[in-house]
């Protein structure tokens, strides 16, 4: 009997420890009604501040919530979301790695998914892939995360691996619809009939209906002209964010696009989006030799050159893109070029670009760009002229906000505080979260010797400025006041 007891004693001790651990785990995760209520209140306060673009306060409220119930996902999801909105991706990643260990592995994997998706949307496919892989390394089964990894693999040139991951998983819901669309894209490279069959295999939700209709229409438009077919497919792939699929289809065996203008152009576009800038320039130069589409080709070359940090070549190609456009300069092209010049302190060149653009086309947006340029050069007469010209246009709401910003700025510089305040009220009525409004309001407060009010306005400006339009100036002014 004593021998039997000795034999089973270690197992009894182990069982006791395991039972104790289970009981401790259950008790540790048990949440009282008081805790749940306090947690809910903190979450509600955080969400209200988040909606009001008070990101710092929202983050503090979310952090408070994690102290009350450490193993609930909602607070951590709010923290990650707020950090991503402020373009603090690395901070969001650090929080997910270090501070979310009380969550289940599956919950943590969803946070990795949110962060990876931002990198993916920005075109940083390699980083997105790393984040998705880190989430899956937690040992979870997360179809949405696996699909996201498959997409990123396609976009870093790991075509076979990405395809296999998308094909082998059994997706449901929105993931099934998206995966089916991507497989249709892939199969179209091999054969039109296979793609048609795949695209009709699933009924899309409202979210994906446009993409399905677009690709279905594209497939039905394909004929016996192989060069025409691959270019139409490549255009869809590039616009949908899959440059490597475009490269695959344009380099398909049996299709010679060497003398096909659109084929070479879209291959250059695809290489640009894939981050292969030298190859992009080579293909775009080949397209230029064929004649036609000069403005689009030079514009794409300018982007590729700038991505290579070749400022001189970029300026040359932007100039040629604008010259080739004639009197119909694309607004996005001119804005992109002028802002690139200003970012690189090429202010005189930017002024020259504005002058030449106004000769060929007098548009409100060009005068607004002119205000930005002339402000950097302290050209008071030009600024006054551009402001007068803008009164002749029926402005869009966004243009109206820009005009009011410049009008208020000029009033402040002239010391006309009351006029500035009236103008800022108009701007506020159009956009209460406009960071430029809060920045100029701080300057009004300074004129009125309200230092604390100025500090509050600057802090609000920094909170609202998700695109860092005036953050640097606001931080400098704030540091001077403290």
UniProtKB/TrEMBL annotation:
The membrane-spanning stretches of this chain are: 9-27
Keywords from UniProt, A to Z, are: Membrane, Repeat, TPR repeat, Transmembrane, Transmembrane helix
Q: Which SUPFAM superfamilies match?
A: TPR-like (SSF48452)
**Positions of the TPR repeats?**
109-142, 261-294
**Keyword field contains Transmembrane helix:** yes
Against SMART domains, the record matches this protein to:
TPR (SM00028)
Query: What highest taxon heads this organism's lineage?
Result: Bacteria
**What Pfam families has UniProt attached to this entry?**
TPR_16 (PF13432), TPR_8 (PF13181)
PANTHER family in the cross-refs: LIPOPOLYSACCHARIDE ASSEMBLY PROTEIN B, TPR REPEAT-CONTAINING PROTEIN PA4667
This chain belongs to which protein, by name? Answer: Tetratricopeptide repeat protein
Record the organism. Answer: Candidatus Dojkabacteria bacterium
């Amino acid at each position: 009997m004593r021998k039997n007891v000795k034999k089973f004693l270690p197992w009894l001790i182990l069982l006791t420890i395991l039972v104790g651990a289970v009981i401790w785990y259950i008790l540790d995760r048990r949440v009282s009604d008081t805790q749940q209520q306090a947690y809910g209140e903190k979450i509600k306060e955080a969400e209200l501040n988040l909606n009001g673009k008070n990101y710092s306060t929202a983050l503090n409220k979310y952090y408070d919530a994690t102290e009350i119930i450490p193993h609930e996902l909602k607070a951590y999801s709010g923290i990650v979301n707020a950090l991503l909105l402020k373009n603090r991706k690395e901070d969001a990643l650090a929080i997910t790695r270090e501070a979310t260990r009380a969550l289940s592995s599956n919950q943590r994997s969803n946070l990795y998914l949110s962060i990876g998706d931002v990198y993916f949307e920005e075109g940083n496919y390699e980083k997105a892939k790393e984040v998705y892989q880190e989430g899956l390394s937690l040992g979870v089964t997360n179809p949405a995360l696996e699909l996201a990894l498959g997409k990123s693999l396609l976009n870093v040139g790991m075509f076979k691996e990405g395809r296999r991951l998308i094909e082998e998983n059994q997706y449901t819901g929105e993931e099934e619809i998206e995966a089916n669309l991507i497989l249709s894209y892939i199969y179209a490279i091999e054969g039109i009939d296979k793609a048609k069959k795949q695209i009709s295999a699933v009924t899309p939700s409202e979210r994906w209906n446009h993409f399905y209709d677009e690709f279905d229409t594209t497939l039905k438009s394909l004929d016996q002209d192989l060069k025409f077919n691959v270019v139409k497919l490549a255009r869809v792939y590039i616009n949908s964010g899959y440059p490597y699929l475009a490269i695959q289809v344009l380099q398909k065996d049996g299709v010679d696009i060497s003398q096909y203008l659109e084929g070479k152009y879209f291959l250059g576009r695809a290489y640009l989006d894939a981050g292969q800038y030298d190859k992009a320039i080579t293909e775009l130069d080949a397209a230029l030799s064929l004649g036609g589409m000069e403005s689009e080709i030079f514009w794409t070359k300018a982007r590729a050159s700038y991505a290579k940090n070749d400022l001189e070549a970029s300026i040359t190609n932007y100039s040629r893109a604008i010259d080739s456009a004639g009197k119909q300069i694309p607004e996005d092209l001119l804005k992109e070029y002028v802002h690139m010049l200003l970012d690189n302190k090429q202010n005189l060149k930017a002024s020259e670009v504005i002058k030449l653009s106004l000769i060929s086309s007098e548009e409100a947006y060009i005068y607004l760009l002119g205000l930005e340029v002339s402000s950097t050069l302290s050209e008071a007469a030009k600024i006054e002229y551009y402001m007068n010209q803008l009164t002749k246009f029926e402005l869009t709401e966004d243009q109206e906000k820009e005009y009011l910003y410049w009008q208020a700025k000029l009033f402040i510089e002239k010391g006309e505080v009351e006029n500035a305040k009236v103008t800022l009220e108009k701007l506020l009525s159009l956009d209460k979260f406009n960071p430029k409004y809060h920045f100029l309001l701080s300057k009004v407060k300074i004129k009125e010797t309200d230092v604390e009010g100025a500090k509050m306005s600057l802090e609000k400006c920094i909170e609202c400025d998700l695109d860092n339009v005036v953050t640097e100036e606001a931080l400098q002014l704030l540091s001077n006041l403290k």
